[in-house]
Amino acid sequence: MIEPFTDEYFMKQALIEAQKAFSEDEVPVGAVVAFKGRIIARAHNFTEHLNDVTAHAEMQAITAAAESLGGKYLKGCTLYVTLEPCAMCAGALYWSQIDNIVFGAADPKRGAGRFGNELYHPQTKITGGVLEKECGDLVLDFFKNKRS
User: How far apart are CA 71 and CA 76, in angstroms?
Assistant: First the structure.
C-alpha cells in the first residue's frame, strides 16, 4: 500500500501551526496528531494568551486528539511537533501511550532527549530531525526578534 502522506507532509502542517503561534507572539511551536493517515488535532503554543505555563502545543494537541477519539489513550496516533518535547510534555505523552512522536528541531537545553528516552513510554517510537532547519529557524527568528 502506498502511504499518501509522509512525515514531511504532517510536519509542514505542524509548521503552519507554529507560524500561527509566531504571529500571535507565542513561542512558535506547532503540533498535529495523525490517526490512520488523517489529522485529528492541530495546536500551537498558547501559554501567553492563556497565562498558563502548561499550554504547550503538545499538551493542547493531546487534549484535542483525545477528544476526537473519545478516550484518553492515543494508541495508533503519531504526534508531529516542530520542537522536541520538554520533560512535561514527554510525561503527558507517556501517559497518553501514543505510538509515535516525530519532531523537527532538537532542543538541547529543555528537550526531553537530554534524559535519553527515559521520559517516553517504552513502546513509543521517537524520530527527530524532520524538516529540522525550517522548524529551528522559526524559533531562532522569534527569539532574534525579541532581542532586537
Answer: 13
Q: What does the pLDDT look like over 3-34, one tens digit per residue?
A: 578 999 999 999 999 999 999 999 999 999 99
> Would you state the pLDDT for residue 3?
58
Residue type, 126: I
CB 100 within 8 A of CB 78: yes
For residue range 103-138, what is the model confidence (pLDDT) as tens digits?
999 999 999 988 887 888 999 999 999 999 999 999
Burial readout 8-22 (b: 16 or more C-beta within 10 A, e: otherwise): eebbbbbbebbebbb
Q: Kindly report the number of other CB atoms within 10 A of residue 42's CB atom.
A: 19
Is 58 a catalytic site residue?
yes
Q: 17, 26, 58, 84: which is the annotated catalytic residue? A: 58
The DSSP element (H or E) to which 20 belongs, if any, is helix 7-23
Strands laid side by side in the 38-44 sheet: 38-44, 30-35, 77-83, 100-105, 125-127
Q: Give the C-alpha separation, 43 to 63, whole Å.
A: 10
Residue type at 51 in one-letter notation: N
* pTM metric for this prediction: 0.95
